[in-house]
Write a structure and sequence with these properties.
Length: 761
């Protein structure tokens, strides 16, 4: 077990110093949260406390504490996720060995360690690794309440479930029915006492669930930041709306306009036809496509070259274009291409969605073994004195717990309209436990020539075939080798129970089969580590090892990119006593500047420009008071604050910065009257953020890419993006490359700076 934990530490932590800014949306919030307790409590995105991120703060609290201790670095904000990921592996072992023994527990812990999306998620400052830890910790205490028959552990377990809610809201409650059901069937007390115990536990659950969102909603809105992602400035509405039912039924924008989720069978909103996906500036950004070439940041350092033997996905999909036709499931109908999916590729609704190329290579390598293992273990632990086949033994009660985790989560991902592939880490603990226990029981049934002895060869052969399909998207020869070895090993596993008198000396075949089906997921899990991946949209797969290949994730540097040094120097020189360095449309533009300077930047529309966080009247008041002197437009459209933007363009002075990096760049001012005809963006987003077919981006990009992406145009250049500086502050004339093809600053880019101070002078 120590070796497994060391392996987990290596996979989750190695190369994490390459994280850059990690997910810059959350990293900017962490910078802000270290400035004051108010920002810390509400998870404010900006130091001035104008707007929050679109998730509750618990996971960010740990990251902010780490940043306060070690300073704000990519590795320091990711450190809590790494530690929680390693701790989750140990919790899996602890939860399994009490009822099933050490061998199944070690197998379960190993499977959890080697689940590709678990590795990728544990290397980011997203919330998912933290969520899994608190869910497992909750189960640990509920299990302890059953074993020791002590209520206080039950209360702690349900309280921790409330804490998990405040990590990622309703996503945590997908396993809540399993907790209730497990305690009901596992405790040897009367039903009245069970009701009383669960009633008290529910009170603890409610308290720890609601204490933070109620504290937000009961605070006067003028005394706290706007709740980012919500439509009514309410944390409860955010929890049960955007982060709740809309994940299942389809996402809505901050303006209330509904659009279908990615992968659903419904038609796309026509307004999103020209929308471009986000651009994740990274040292590992995906190479350009002919449709949407990335902008080339000036002053950036060259990209680190990967191995020349890097795999090439099929159809010439260099860089594994996320969500594009070259990638797996490039359309919502499911297409062909490299395994691994895209930021918006989740396959077609149906019972086999999780086995498809969009989601399968991240989570489903051993899903067949887990399902067959549940059947095997349920009958293996039947017990000799049972009157009915469905009677419960202590082991079967534990199996019901993990089946209660697997089934509803599997069902959600099979039918949900909006989620990202990396959310499927929710399945990892259940697959790990049922797979680990199942491998052990199938092995024992095979050796004992049980009626269920054929489950082992069926599991090995079917899993090898599924894995060969995934591997074939990158390595066709190795896929055939994997399939061939699967067939060769399965043949004696099928035949020996019928012809051999003693199978005790034949254990080499089952062991070989288990090793075989662990090879491919082990390599997939290794790819984020080798690539130094720390992505906004985490992923695993050989595309990460390509030169400039970023898979579907927006890699180191997060969603924002680097700052424009000319713009930054000018703003810092002329900020004066203004509270905000500048105002801009969305968080993707603001994040790099908050990270590099620690100063307040107002994201008027929140993450994607769709939040109605401030009215025109309120904005005018701030300008009149001198709290905002500059507005920076990234040349994007589709936000919800057109009244503010139109007022600025009509009344403010437009500032033109030269391409010089000097803080004393020459500037010219001209009074803007009427609507502004800004130049089109000179750089489109890179494929790191995922390029849907024909430049169409799916709707629903807020927080962790949910909301409505604004439109942006692109040129036809096919130059490859250079590696941006790893320093958050940025050096040289790099331009901020945000969502929707937004670029900014001088040097021919589309960003426009407006001077607001003269409006009331």
């Amino acid at each position: 077990m120590i070796a497994i934990l060391i392996l987990a530490a290596f996979l989750y932590a190695w190369n994490i110093w390459e994280a850059g800014e990690a997910n810059s949306f959350y990293t900017a919030a962490i910078v802000s949260m270290t400035k004051s307790f108010k920002n810390f409590w509400y998870a404010s995105f900006d130091p001035a406390g104008f707007i929050t991120v679109d998730k509750p703060p618990v996971a960010l609290w740990f990251m902010a504490i780490s940043a306060k201790i070690f300073g704000v670095h990519g590795w320091s904000v990711v450190l809590p996720s790494i530690l929680f990921g390693i701790a989750s592996v140990y919790l899996i072992y602890n939860l399994v060995h009490k009822r099933f023994g050490r061998v199944p527990a070690r197998l379960a812990a190993l499977i959890m360690t080697l689940t590709p999306i678990a590795v990728a998620d544990s290397r980011t400052n997203n919330m998912d690794a933290t969520l899994i830890f608190f869910l497992l910790l909750s189960i640990y205490f509920v299990q302890k309440a059953v074993f020791k028959n002590q209520q206080r552990y039950l209360w702690i377990g349900f309280a921790l479930m409330g804490v998990a809610f405040n990590v990622k809201m309703l996503q945590a409650f997908m396993i809540l029915p399993a907790l209730y059901f497990y305690y009901w069937i596992a405790t040897n007390i009367g039903w009245k006492k069970k009701l009383a115990h669960l009633g008290v536990a529910t009170i603890f659950l409610a308290i720890f669930t609601l204490i933070w969102p109620l504290s937000v909603d009961m605070t006067n809105s003028s005394n706290r930041p706007y709740e980012g992602g919500s439509e009514t400035n309410s944390a409860l509405e955010l929890a049960f709306g955007y982060n709740g039912t809309q994940r299942l039924l389809g996402q809505t924008t901050g303006t209330g306009g509904a659009f279908p989720g990615m992968g659903s069978s419904s038609k796309k909103n026509s307004s999103s036809k020209n929308m471009t996906p986000p651009n994740g500036t990274s040292k590992k950004s995906a190479s350009s496509s002919s449709n949407t070439p990335p902008a080339k940041p000036s002053g950036s350092s060259s990209s680190k070259k990967s191995s020349t033997n890097a795999p090439t996905p099929p159809n010439g999909a260099e860089g594994m274009q996320a969500g594009g036709q070259g990638g797996p499931g490039g359309s919502n109908k499911g297409g062909k291409g490299g395994a691994g999916g895209g930021a918006f590729s989740i396959g077609t609704v149906g019972p086999f969605r999780l086995f498809g190329l969009d989601l399968g290579p991240q989570i489903s390598w051993l899903l067949i073994i887990a399902i067959l293992g549940l059947i095997s273990s349920y009958f293996y632990y039947r017990g000799s004195r049972m009157k009915k086949w469905w009677s419960l033994t202590p082991q079967r009660k534990e199996l019901w717990l993990w089946a209660g985790w697997l089934v509803p989560v599997y069902g959600f991902f099979s039918v949900a309209s909006f989620f990202h592939p990396y959310y499927t880490i929710m399945l990892a603990p259940a697959i790990a436990v049922l797979g680990g226990v199942g491998i052990y029981t199938m092995f024992r049934q095979w050796k004992e020539k049980s009626i269920w002895s054929m489950l082992l060869p069926i599991a090995i052969l079917s899993t090898a075939a599924l894995q060969a399909w995934y591997v074939a998207q990158y390595y066709s020869v190795l896929a055939w080798v994997l399939l061939g070895l699967g067939v060769l090993i399965s043949i004696p596993l099928f035949v020996l129970p019928w012809i051999a008198t003693n199978l005790k000396s034949k254990h080499v075949w089952p062991i070989a089969g288990v090793i075989l089906v662990m090879l491919a997921p082990s390599f997939w899990s290794l790819t984020p580590t080798l690539a130094g991946e720390s992505a906004q949209i985490p992923t695993a797969g050989p595309s990460l090892l390509q030169q400039g290949g970023g898979g579907m994730g927006m890699n180191a540097g997060g969603m924002g990119g680097s700052t424009d040094s000319t713009l930054l120097k000018y703003l810092e020189k002329h900020q004066g006593n203004a509270e905000y360095l500048f105002a801009t449309d969305d968080s993707s533009t603001a994040a790099p500047y908050i990270i590099s300077t620690g100063k307040a930047v107002m994201a008027i529309g929140g993450f994607n420009g769709t939040d109605k966080a401030i009215t025109l009247k309120q904005f005018k008041k701030l300008v009149k008071e001198g709290k905002i002197k500059y507005y920076y437009s990234g040349g994007k459209t589709g936000g919800s604050n057109t009244a503010i933007v139109n007022w600025i363009k009509k009344n403010a002075k437009k500032i033109k910065l030269s391409s010089s990096t000097s803080a004393t760049s020459s500037i010219t001012t001209s009074t803007k009257t009427g609507s502004s005809n800004e130049s089109a963006p000179t750089g489109a987003p890179s494929n790191a953020g995922g390029t849907p077919p024909s430049g169409t981006a799916p709707s629903g990009m807020q927080g962790e890419m949910g909301g409505t992406p604004p439109s942006g145009s692109s040129n036809s250049s096919t130059k490859k993006m250079k590696k941006p500086s790893k320093k958050p502050s940025g050096t040289g004339n790099t331009v901020p490359e945000g969502m929707g093809g937004m670029t900014g600053g001088p040097g021919g880019s589309s960003g426009t700076l407006y001077d607001l101070s003269s409006i009331y002078n």
